[in-house]
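Run log, item B.
One chain of 921 residues. Sequence copied directly from the ordering sheet:
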Amino acid sequence: MEEIKGEITTEKEIEKRKKDIINFFKKKTNLFFYGILSIILIISTFIRTRPIPKLKDITTGTWTLGPDLDPFLFLRWAKYIVEHGKLFLMDTMRYVPLANICSGDTCTPVNTAGEMKLLSYMIAWLSKFLTIFDKEATVTYAAIIFPVIMAVLTGIAFFLFARKIFYKEDKKIANIIALIATAFFVLIPSLLPRTVAGIPEKESAAFFFIFIGFYFFLEAFTSEKLKRALIFGALAGIATGMLGLIWGGVTFMFLVIPGAVLFEFILGKIDNKRFFSYLLWIIGAMIIMIPFSTRYSPLNLIASVSTGLSFVILFILFIDKIIFEKKIFGIHKKIEKIKIPRRIISIIIAGIIITIIASIAFGVSFVPDIVKNIISDTIHPLAQSRFGVTVAENRQPYFISEWAGEFGPTVFNIPLYFWLFFIGSILFFGYLIRMLEKKEKIILTGSYLVMLICLIFSKYSSSSILNGESTTSIIVYLGGFLFFIGSWAYFYYKKYKEGKLPVFSELNFAYIFYLVTLTMAIIAARGAVRLIMVFGAVSPIAIAFLIIKSIQRYFNEKDDVKKLFIFIITLLILIASLFTIWTYYHSDKGMAESYVPGMYQWQWQKAMAWVRENTLGNSVFAHWWDYGYWLQSIGERATILDGGNAVGYWNHFMGRHVLTGSNERTALDFLYAHNGTHLLIDSTEIGKYGAYSSIGSDEYYDRYSWIPTIFMDESQTQETNNETLYVYPIGTVLDEDIIINKDGKDILLPKGKAFVAVITLKERTNGEIGQPMIFFVYNEKQYSEPLRYIYIKGKLYDFKAGIEAGIFIFPRLDQTLDGRLSVNEKGAAFYLSKRTVHSGIARLYLFNEESDYFKLVHTEDNLINEQLKEQGMSVGDFVYYQGFQGPIKIWEISYPKDIKLNESYLDTEFPEELDTTLGDY
């Protein structure tokens, strides 16, 4: 008996040891995977910290941020939080004098209660944490390393999310797919500018909350235990709420999660556990968002197109529950007689009730307007007003340029990353529906392929019929959606009629969730350049899936011929993937090192040092909006405009009356209303003329123009005994109609069709400047006319007659083969049309026109000009060398004694008649 007991004990010990050994290796396997993840994150950190040593202000020797604009606002706020414990309520340095005159909703731009200020608090908290270890650590240093720390946390969150998508796979396979996806994720070039050291942008923290929120939600919906599901549902809501306090892109989560839940509901897979998880997600988000920001309220969250979908889906789930589960009033008996799937009936009933309630509460037009806005938003996720389209980040992306360029590397004109994603997403969809019949799989996969092609290629290029705006383009775009939805609807109803609807319950929710995420990311990336990074962030999972499934298919294939074919395909996928990662690594490394202050930023640092030291603390600066945060943070002075673009009407006034206007008194009226003490103009304003002249125009675009840079064609220079003829080819279209008279006959040269071909200039040997000639071309005919104005050698010549336009001539520098610089004093020029030659920027910045009210008090030379002057070269304020190089000029403003406040310049509501684009004109 004792021997038997001993044998049993021995067997138990052996079994226990076996389990211990297995658990040991399992732990070691996990440690191996986490070790690889750590290496990936170390590489990410190595790349993103490259700029740190060079992030210094040359005037103070202290830390500064990288060459970006918005982060300087977050830094200024963070500094205040560290010093005072919390952020001020009214930001008096923005939109002067709004903080002193506003009330209610008009305070929105300067009332920080409605701003997304969590990012600044996070930087402040990091700063306080760093001072525990280093008392010398500054807030600026904390802001510099903040994106790098968040990139590490985001990498971990992305790994967890990617791994959770494949929770039904073998754990090793799920880990490997997640690791490959994370390797791509940390190297995606479109994400680097938002996550590199020195650029604490909103997105540096936002993507962490997106992916950790998605991970929590997947945990909630795939959990078997109610308590666990509810906890993770609430955590997902908290992550969503935190995102809402940082980034306006929170709408992405408010579209993805309800979209996936709706799909799951239609498939009949929403039980009580999932219903309450979803409810807690909404509650969790609202609990965080509403108390901590006045921009959110229950009403505007429900009524908004972007966030309202989550409440609509919740209401649909509720209606389904009370009708078909609680069976209130026995309505279900009557409804079940209708030969329509139960979930579709619930959607229809909920839709009718919502329409009735919304029409009563918000008016009959509310629902139709919502539908119209939804269609518009899917085509243009970002507003395409005259303000939106002039911001570089909001410009329209096209496949041939932005998509192909962002998702390379390109080999034989093939953008490798894009096509790896494209094939991977189709394979991913195929695996989602693999339990369906063969015919159904072929048709549904085909419909997904068609939708994908229509989504992406309906905005192929700006010059093609598929430009994203044409009727054909929109039909292709929406047609792809309808074809995909129609295919699903057909098979869904077919299965319903056959009594086989439960087959859809086998569809993997995690796969559905990812495909909804991917589709929303494609729509976002299609709408604006700045949103390409959203697609870049979620697409690596499809590529990792393609790699692993191709390898698995190769090892599982038994047929030798097929195996060889699969081997070749898999090898190509692996080579393309490795080459892409290798290219991204080197590209990112070089790109990261470039995110440091350069000559342009040094020029601004010096100019802002002058501002700090030579202007009063209560000074108010007028300038184009781009540089507001630099003036507020580096120059420590208040501004009328800034990068928030929150008061578009003031942008209009600044563009119309100050920069493009010819009436000095009108400019002074606007500046006086805003307590302006100084005017600042930067050299980049020349290239931005098209933007601020568009914004400053009336409904007919009366100010819209541009300033083309032109160059002397030295090969056409002609010298005679007493004069030299210089030729400046132009090739720009007219910005307005011109009527000339030839042989007593008026000839119309229409804008946009006739163009300026060339300007010629004669200079006599004694230095006397002759009147230039301008040559127009229209309908293959050439017309020549005298040109009224020319600015050359620091002097403006007005010949009193001729075409009301001018040419501004300045030096051009070229590097010779032996490395020396050659100077052509007349080598470069600006063509100034009638609309631009009398503008404020031409008169003050280019012509140095003297004024009784604008006194030039500082000129901060471009560093190239400064170095040339130090070498004894007389190049003046402007030179063309690898681009236009000019100074930052600052004027002190004084006002006429009889000037009075014109309160119309303080209006913040943008007139409806100006809410147009050039396409409308």
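Observations after the first pass:
- The mean pLDDT is 89.
- The first helix runs from residue 2 to 48.
Flagged for discussion on Thursday.
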